[in-house]
């Protein structure tokens, strides 16, 4: 009887009780899955893709439609709960729509990365590119802040959320069929391509974690 109990304890303390890697996806409507059924949004599709690659992972949807980098900073502390192992940060699109000073956006992203560093949470920072209509100085400052902050905090960096659809210099005409009617948010098939582009970066993020 005692041997049986010992055997049960060994089984219960083994790999069967291993916890999945928990990743918080901090972002705006692109992360939240605006305009799509829940199962077709970015987070569920990314989680499914990662599991197909063999990753034992849970993605938390911390995307809020309309959120700016300031909104993300205000949510960072309570998003980084003790069970969160890593974080994907995809913010800045709404800063662009509002013409917010890149120095302000940069300070907010800096605060988010600082919070992650203090929580000992690995980060994948996803970049974004400003349109040219704000002027060359605005565009240069905005575009550069992501890679520079990633280097400063030694985080992983992906140049664009839309890398799987062509990334920087994307031709809107070529991806019209992958977007919703507003031309801003991807449809379900667009999300498939986004996940195929970002998925390997998230696998790299997972590989950075201890005992992953």
From TrEMBL:
Keywords: Signal. PANTHER family: THIOESTERASE 1/PROTEASE 1/LYSOPHOSPHOLIPASE L1, THIOESTERASE 1_PROTEASE 1_LYSOPHOSPHOLIPASE L1. SUPFAM superfamilies: SGNH hydrolase (SSF52266). It comes from the Bacteria. Residues 1-18 form the signal peptide. It comes from Pseudosulfitobacter koreensis. Residues 25-190 form the SGNH hydrolase-type esterase domain. CDD domains: Lysophospholipase_L1_like (cd01822). This is Arylesterase.
């Amino acid at each position: 009887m005692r041997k049986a109990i010992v055997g049960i304890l060994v089984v219960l303390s083994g790999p069967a009780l291993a916890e999945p890697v928990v990743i918080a996806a901090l972002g705006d409507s692109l992360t939240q899955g605006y305009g799509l059924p829940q199962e077709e949004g970015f987070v569920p599709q990314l989680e499914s893709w990662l599991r197909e690659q063999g990753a034992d992972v849970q993605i938390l949807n911390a995307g809020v439609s309309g959120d700016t980098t300031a909104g993300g900073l205000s949510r960072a502390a309570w998003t980084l709960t003790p069970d969160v192992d890593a974080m994907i940060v995809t913010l800045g699109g709404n800063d662009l729509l509002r013409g917010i000073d890149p120095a302000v956006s940069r300070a907010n992203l800096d605060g988010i990365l600082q919070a992650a560093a203090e929580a000992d949470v690995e980060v994948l920072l996803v970049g974004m590119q400003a349109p040219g209509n704000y002027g060359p100085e605005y565009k240069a400052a905005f575009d550069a802040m992501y890679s520079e902050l990633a280097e400063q905090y030694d985080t992983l960096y992906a140049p664009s959320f839309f890398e799987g659809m062509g990334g920087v210099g994307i031709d809107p005409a070529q991806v019209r069929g992958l977007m919703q009617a507003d031309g801003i948010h991807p449809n379900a098939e667009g999300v498939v391509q986004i996940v195929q582009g970002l998925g390997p970066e998230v696998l790299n993020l997972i590989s950075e974690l201890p005992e992953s």
